[in-house]
Amino acid sequence: MTRKPIRTRPFPFWPIFGKPEEKRLLRVLRSGKWGRLHGAEVAAFEKRFAEMHGCKHGIAVVNGTVSLRIALIATGIRAEDEVIVPPYTFFSTASAVVEANAVPVFADIDLDTFNIDPAAIEAAITPRTRAIIPVHFAGQPADMDAIMAIAARHKLIVIEDAAHAHGASYKNRPAGSIGRLASFSFQSSKNLTAGEGGVITTNDDTLADACRSIQNCGRVPKGVWYEHHVISGNYRLSEFQGAVLNAQLDRLKAQTRTRDRNGKYLAARLAKLPGLYPQKRSADCTRHSYHLFMMHVDSSRDLFVKRLQAEGIPCSAGYGFSLHQQPFFRNRAFGPYLPNARVNYENVSCPNSDLICRQAIWLEQNMFLGPRSDMDDIGLAFEKIFSNS
Ligand SMILES: Cc1ncc(COP(=O)(O)O)c(C=O)c1O
């Protein structure tokens, strides 16, 4: 193997920011209106983000974990109701369910798309099932027609976990506009970021009021300041975060197009390599946000990751094991939640998720914001490793 790495230059730095962020931040600073109760940035962002999704409401909150929990509680989920979630996702998709005092039930993913498999959802339904949280994993929308049809048949609520899916679309409908509610994250790695933050989108007026109330210490829209109606907390974003989000939102459309174009190109190139399987793109995915570019390899994944890194291609293996195998679930470390639930996660079987945990490779979204020649470098690195092995 030649010693010179394929890539010596860095990929685009994330986050991308400049004068618009500076201008808005300084305006907030100088206004002295730093909290969302007094300024205009968060409110403007909520309106813009909701409109971009064809939704009537956007409720900004402190992160994408809290947004899931608030969405669940707003639906009136009751103690020990069951909520179906995928096992291949970040911790919060399931921990938020426990924090709503409900029981996460894991339904395996599809091996081609890495998204929750509707057949597995159907098999996981019991009389206690109340909701489904599909995750648009890596930025490819889940199989929403099938999921919404199951939900309609069994009278279940769908909450989209769109933490990876800013700007993605399903049959030309924005991800995050299809379920009863959706949750987004603005944590620092996300395609739209303010360092931390989250938002709930919905078209349902009653649910929106409930979310707003939980976000704002249990206050109600027409109530007075010292009037608290429901169990809740202070989950409001600051105006500084709102300022950054407004500036970042102006960049999102063009960035998403670039990621999608580059991701598509790289996927086609890598699919030619034997034993390497880039995430399959469903025909229903009209825009992929490529929060992650994912694939799995037949063998020696860890060595593959090391070799790619040695070629100057930043990458990782992603999750080391399926979510239900976390100590949190194995030890049922639920704190005050689910005191009476007879749940046991030892025997959960999600072989597809387990396999992807052993075989996945992740590349991050910022690598897809440069020119096509960046994709050629990534492709060349893979091809070099293949030809040398
Ligand atoms: C799929 C998914 N859901 C939820 C979250 C939680 O978002 P946050 O980190 O903003 O709490 C994340 C964050 O990484 C995520 O990847």
Can you characterise this structure?
The structure is a single chain. With about 400 residues, the protein is α/β, with parallel strands linked by helices. Helices cover about 35% and strands about 15% of the residues. The chain has helices at about 20-30, 40-50, 65-75, 90-100, 120-125, 145-155, 205-215, 240-270, 300-310, 325-330, 350-360, 370-389, and strands at about 55-60, 80-85, 105, 130, 155-160, 170, 175, 180-185, 200, 275-280, 285, 290-295, 360-365. It has a 7-stranded mixed sheet with strand order 1-9-8-5-4-2-3, with helices on both faces. α2 packs parallel to α8 and α3 (about 65-75) crosses α7 (about 205-215). The longest helix has about 30 residues, at about 240-270. The chain is globular and about 70 Å long. The structure holds pyridoxal-5'-phosphate. Pyridoxal-5'-phosphate binds near residues 63, 89, 90 and 93.
